[in-house]
Specification:
heterodimer; A: 114 residues; five-stranded antiparallel beta sheet; B: 112 residues; seven-stranded mixed beta sheet; four-stranded antiparallel beta sheet; 57% strand
Chain lengths: 114, 112
């Protein structure tokens, strides 16, 4: 059974700090790893990492996939209060309908103190 | 406002009631999903539809009944629910089987 473990479970930092969120996974026939941000209700897509795209960056957010260590990190630099959210990690195996087998972690709750 | 709209936002129902959750996507996607999100648990996939055909039913109790009349609309019909069914129900869509999911704001369901 596929598995995703995120750490830490929660994190509280001050505005301006840099944070690193971790995601470890076990999956048969890895296809992709995704990061989502969930502020109130709707998770919003951040990044998708695959064997052909192991590093992504968008503004202050960046993510790296380590296929050897079966893990990924999400970095947020110069954090702002708007970064407060739950960050979800998910992995998808190679299958007939990839998203059918998408496995989510429980998330990391990030709180930014002004 | 996301490209996936869910109604109602909140729903309180008794265990003998029948209600339906509605989801509409305005993104031209081909796949739609129902997820359940309970406190301190990972998102759980309930149902997947691709081009209006159900792809998978992940051993969901029969008191939950999905309906996908077309590629833009998805319903979740509820009847004789249990208190443990109280959760946030999220609808999502994707362009195809491998593209990232786009989620709606969810329906917060409370079963009394």
């Amino acid at each position: 059974e596929d598995k995703v473990v995120q750490s830490p479970l929660s994190l509280v930092v001050h505005e301006g700090d840099t944070v690193t969120l971790n995601c470890s996974y076990e999956v048969t026939n890895f296809r992709s790893l995704l990061w989502y941000k969930q502020e109130k209700k709707a998770p919003t897509f951040l990044f998708m990492l695959t064997s052909s795209g192991i590093e992504k960056k968008s503004g202050r957010l960046s993510s790296i996939l380590d296929k050897k260590e079966l893990s990924s990190i999400l970095n947020i630099t110069a954090t702002q209060t708007g970064d407060s959210a739950i960050y979800l990690c998910a992995v998808a195996p190679i299958s007939n309908f990839g998203n059918e087998k998408l496995t989510f972690g429980t998330g990391t709750r990030l709180t930014i103190i002004p | 406002e996301t490209g996936v709209t869910q109604t109602p936002r909140h729903l309180v129902m008794g265990m003998t009631n029948k209600k339906s959750l509605k989801c509409e996507q305005h993104l031209g996607h081909n796949a739609m999903y129902w997820y359940k999100q309970s406190a301190k648990k990972p998102l759980e996939l309930m149902f997947v539809y691709s081009l209006e055909e159900r792809v998978e039913n992940n051993s969901v109790p029969s008191r939950f009944s999905p309906e996908c009349p077309n590629s833009s609309h998805l319903f979740l019909h509820l009847h004789t629910l249990q208190p443990e069914d109280s959760a946030l129900y999220l609808c999502a869509s994707s362009q195809d089987a491998y593209s990232p999911l786009h989620f709606g704001n969810g329906t917060r369901l409370t079963v009394t």
